[in-house]
Design a protein that fits this description.
The complex is a heterodimer of chains A (101) and B (239).
Chain A: H1 3-26, H2 33-41, H3 68-100
Helix pairs in contact in A: 1-3
Chain B: H1 10-34, H2 40-53, E1 58-60, E2 64-66, H3 71-78, H4 81-99, H5 107-129, E3 130-134, E4 140-144, H6 148-173, H7 179-211, H8 226-234
Antiparallel strand pairs in B: 1-2, 3-4
Helix pairs in contact in B: 1-4, 1-5, 2-4, 3-4, 3-5, 3-6, 4-5, 5-6, 6-7
Classes of the chains: A mainly alpha (101), B mainly alpha (239).
């Protein structure tokens, strides 16, 4: 990888981690627009049918409690998973494209 | 903006999944043709950044909050809505499976709203308002109804606003709330959230232009004419 691209990747990861560390402290606890609309118009019907139980529900690592550390750890894990997934998928697509050409 | 499980009936979710997968296949075809060692790191960084920035809810009036979606941002950076669909699909997958943010059955609807609608509306609104081209003097310039940064701001505002309107329609069609009231509430919230989306999009793209202008889609005009670039970015190979 060229140094310019490596620097972009490292810089981007650092910014993402800084935002991830800040997120549990600065994120509003107000419901988001969709939740707020549902709460106004149909509050009794909001039920999770439980099709899937996410390992880090509500952006928290369960065994780290309910504090900011649990949130920060979950987001760092999220960054690693997202980076890994995008890299694997895009590399596969790029190689398939090269093969076709 | 993430629709959870249990709001939209399964048969409607299935329809949204089929539409979403169709667009996703076309996005992968775009990726096969356009991904390179140069733009893969940017794509990875944008995915991680969007994942994190979606967790930061910014308070807005009326006791609500909102977060950035970033589909218009990605579509404008790559000059292709297919890039936005690909990145948003992966982000929504991680959010749904790992963090339980957004449903599994409703993931197709969420991709339609945030990735497909957000990407296409953002990109084509920007293109309608502003057209970059190479001047005869060889200097990259542009013209249009609005300036470059205003056009990016308006396009990203409209992208998230219409994404929210589409989500309200889907939820209304599911008889979860009356469509008219849903449109009114969602439209009001996301008209405000869209201003934050517009500001962040302009900041991110202008920062990227200062640091790595070569990665911005419109700077490829130095090597290709606008029309060629557009056909490159929009064309989906047949196999």
């Amino acid at each position: 990888m060229k140094s310019k691209n490596r620097n972009l990747l490292i810089g981007g990861i650092i910014v993402a981690i800084i935002l991830g560390v800040l997120s549990p402290f600065i994120s509003s606890t107000n419901p988001d627009g969709l939740q707020a609309t549902a709460e106004h118009l149909n509050p009794n019907a909001i039920q999770n049918p439980g099709y899937w139980h996410a390992p880090f529900e509500n952006y928290k690592v369960p065994f780290l409690g309910n504090g900011p550390l649990a949130g920060i750890a979950a987001l760092v894990i999220g960054i690693i998973i997202a980076l890994g997934l995008v890299y694997i998928l895009t590399e596969i697509l790029k190689r398939r494209g090269n093969t076709e050409n | 903006m993430h629709i959870p499980d249990g709001i939209i009936p399964l048969w409607q979710c299935l329809i949204y999944w089929v539409i979403a997968i169709t667009f996703l296949i076309m996005a992968f075809r775009w990726g096969r043709k356009n991904l390179s060692d140069k733009n893969i790191p940017l794509m990875a960084v944008l995915a991680a950044g969007i994942l994190i920035i979606m967790t930061i809810n910014i308070p807005i009036p009326f006791g609500s909050s909102g977060h950035i979606v970033g589909a218009a941002m990605v579509a404008i950076i790559f000059m292709s809505p297919w890039a936005a669909i690909m990145i948003l699909a992966l982000v929504l997958l991680v959010e749904g499976l790992v963090f339980g943010d957004g449903g599994i059955t409703s993931m197709g609807a969420n991709l339609i709203n945030m990735g497909i609608c957000g990407g296409f509306v953002g990109y084509f609104t920007w293109k309608a308002l502003y057209k970059p081209y190479m001047g005869s003097d060889g200097i990259l310039t542009g013209s249009g109804i609005l300036s470059k940064w205003w056009s990016i701001g308006v396009a990203s505002w409209l992208a998230i606003f219409l994404s929210a309107i589409l989500a309200a329609l889907e939820i209304g069609l599911a008889n979860f709330f009356p469509i008219r009231l849903g449109l009114l509430w969602m439209g009001s919230y996301y008209a405000v959230i869209g201003i934050i989306e517009a500001i962040v999009t302009v900041i991110v793209i202008s920062s990227l232009e200062k640091v790595r202008p070569d990665l911005l889609g419109w700077n490829k005009l130095k090597r290709a004419q606008t029309d060629d670039l557009e056909s490159d970015n929009m064309e989906v190979p047949s196999k």
